[in-house]
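Quick one, T. Sequence first:
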Amino acid sequence: QVQLVESGGALVRPGDSLTLSCAASGHTAGYATGWFRQAPGKGREFVASIRWSDSRTYYATSVQGRFTISRDNAKNTVYLQMNSLNSEDTTIYYCAAVSLDSGGYTSAEYEYWGKGTQVTVSS
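Structure tokens:
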């Protein structure tokens, strides 16, 4: 089975940058990978995704222009580069993958999930 492990979460100040990593094990070739975030009492919010076939990326309006998703096939790792962070970005970030290479933006589409990494933006 596919396993995903997020890392890179930290406490940062407003305006700072941070890069999250999602290391995958198992067969993930051909999978789309996404990043979601979830605040207490809320559903999972789509952040960004990247398709395997053509590396097309998708972003939530709230992060477009600030966040960049990328993939390193050699390392079997997906990254989320986050710039201009603000307090609204504070929450747990989850990595997800799905064998259907759609790059969809709904959490229900994804089969595999990491356990999350905490990002806190505070002065």
